Amino acid sequence: MPGIIDLHTHSSVSDGTLTPAQLVDEAIGLGLHALAITDHDTTAGWDEARIQATGSGLTIVPGMELSTRHGYRSVHLLAYLIDPEDEALVAETERIREGRFTRAEDMVRLLGRDFDLDWDDVTRVAGTGATIGRPHIADALVARGHAPDRTTAFREILHPSRGYYVPHYAPDPLTAIALVRGAGGVPVLAHPGTRGIENVIPEEYLAQLVNAGLFGLEIDHPENGEAAKVRLRALAEKFGLRVTGSSDYHGTGKVNRLGECSTHANVLDAIYAEGTGTGPFLP
Ligand code: AMP
Ligand code: ZN
Ligand code: FE
Ligand code: FE
Description:
Layout: E1 5-6, H1 20-29, E2 34-37, H2 46-53, E3 59-70, E4 73-80, H3 87-111, H4 119-126, H5 134-143, H6 150-158, H7 173-182, E5 186-189, H8 203-212, E6 216-220, H9 226-239, E7 242-245, H10 265-274
Parallel strand pairs: 1-2, 2-3, 5-6, 6-7
Antiparallel strand pairs: 3-4, 4-5
This protein binds adenosine monophosphate, zinc ion and fe (iii) ion (FE) (2 copies).
One fe (iii) ion is lined by residues 65, 76, 190-191.
């Protein structure tokens, strides 16, 4: 029986709650076949994951979830097998992480008007070097007793409708796809059905992403809606895009369970065939 292939997870190098080694141990414990480490805008967790998986039977697919922006909308792009030293990609991810940092400072300043919260609270929960995101601000709010858990903090305080949300710098999706391909990577549009069928990417715009080098759509994702998935499958068929399935696991930071969605082995083989920046870390 082929094992589960989970191609989207986060560690404490970004906004997951487990260290890369703990994440790998959990995947080994569940008997996963392959695990992609896809922290936001960083490849800093790869080495620890590779070392931890050595000799275990678990394949590590090195990846990243790149932040992009289309107009006012945040769009996430999974990038597999990129060269972690590609100059253009490294420069762009540094710019995004820096933008995330100043944006988080701005959000904490706004929150500080209504909540007992300051920047030290965020650094205390985020540690050093992690790609900063709203989950860290959520954790700081929880630590201060303003919310019972991360998910409630997102819903009740950090949602854009509440007025504390500040956008951060991110490149256009077309630019990001070109960057990923330029770094030998394989780009997949992350969770494209989380905003309902009425907000699924327009066909004409998807055609542009395909022309830029898009490889696939992450359709089997716990937060994609059922109607949106039907529409996305039709689009994947029409444009010859591959379909991936992944959990987007964040440790205890989100309800998503490791391995709850899986990618077909032949799609992973196609990723291996197209990715030239780095090889998978075979056990
Ligand atoms: P940001 O990119 O900084 O705006 O923060 C959004 C990120 O928070 C997304 O990657 C979500 O997957 C992540 N996230 C982690 N835990 C949660 C949660 N409990 N509720 C909502 N989003 C979450
Ligand atoms: Zn995240
Ligand atoms: Fe995402
Ligand atoms: Fe994610």
